[in-house]
Amino acid sequence: MTLAFPKLPFELIDNPGADPSAAYGDRQAAVLNAEGLAEARRCITAWPGYAPTPLVELAGLARELGIARLSYKQEGARFGLKSFKPLGGAFAVERCLIRAVAEATGEADVDPARILDGTHADIVSRVTVTAATDGNHGRSVAWGSRMFGCRCVIFINEAVSAARENAIADLGAEVRRLKGSYDDAVRHAFKTAREEGWTVIPDTSDSDIVTAPRDVMQGYALLADELFEQLDAAPTHLFLQAGVGGMAAAVAAEFWRRSDAARPMTILVEPKQAACWFKSLEAGEPTSVTGDIDSFMGGLSCGECSALAWEILRPGAHAAMIVDDEAAKETMRLLANGVAGDPPVVGGESGVAGLAALITAATDPGAREKLKLDEESRVVVIGSEGAVDEAVFRDVVGRASDEVAA
Ligand SMILES: Cc1ncc(COP(=O)(O)O)c(C=O)c1O
């Protein structure tokens, strides 16, 4: 193996709550199911500019890592928003508006096309949606609000970069910056929504609020649906980065729902500072991470697991892994340069986390064995964002993302 990748600290555990032989059960189907996916497909594929994101084959890197295949789902290409997030946030906004129209008109099955074409503008324009965000989720909710014509207020915490703030404001949302962490911003969004009569579109759930977070996750599942169309052989491993766990749960659930016990080995990936899934799976119960949880992988800087995602990932994830911030930076550079003939790929801070974990594990003999990574392995990683923050990308990679892509 000639890959130039430094040895960096990591942690890896088997999930003690994993139930690898279990069929996709009622508790999981109550969160994500075939009907929900069909609705996500009906709505999202009708949005202007929809196209499945590319699945990039990294054959050179796969060879270097001693695995059969490595497929990178390039979510940087999603709707010009550079992350997978619009699948969830904007879809949940549309579902919220469908419910508002149904309530106002008494129509049982509101056609999403009539939300998109402005038929119900009088009702839709009176709705205000809100969300807390580290950047990508808020951008997605703001983008959906603009597309459908409702009002949008987004809360961000102090660590969110000005570039990410501006990207949300440019979509016409009102952005309010607060002191404290992402989790503080989440609490504030709920409080304000209660006071003002707005609808919160969270990308995470506690046990009380489930409708919008379930919609968010169901929208993310379209990403996995696309994967099924794109892959010609079932993967053996999924390395899925987790913040609150919504994306990982949606992808893992889709593979589990369709393949039961034959599903791929699913490894959750987090930064050390915000390893709430690692800690929770280890403890066997949801466990918050407090203190300074900010990581270079900003989208993963979450201290609390989503309760809905827990229903899926507690039994559904096989292992959890902590990767170093430095591994994400190294991976961004490696991808941008292309390994052994691979095409250059633009990956953002949180976007490369799953791949960073794969490289870390595949180059460590103990981790390799524990995760059964070998020359037969077909690995899928989700490149969940591109260069959302251009300044960060340029700083880490040394070139602009356009230059890399060209
Ligand atoms: C780029 C990116 N990747 C992954 C995640 C993690 O998603 P989740 O919070 O649903 O686990 C996020 C969350 O914001 C993100 O922005």
Automatic annotation (TrEMBL):
Its cofactor is pyridoxal 5'-phosphate. Keywords: Lyase, Pyridoxal phosphate. GO terms for molecular function: diaminopropionate ammonia-lyase activity; pyridoxal phosphate binding. Residues 48-382 form the Tryptophan synthase beta chain-like PALP domain. The keyword Hydrolase does not apply. The keyword RNA-binding does not apply. InterPro entries: DiNH2opropionate_NH3_lyase, TrpB-like_PALP, TrpB-like_PALP_sf. Pfam families: PALP. NCBIfam families: diampropi_NH3ly (TIGR01747), PRK08206.1 (NF006058). This is Diaminopropionate ammonia-lyase. It comes from Rhodobium orientis. The lineage of its organism: Bacteria, Pseudomonadati, Pseudomonadota, Alphaproteobacteria, Hyphomicrobiales.
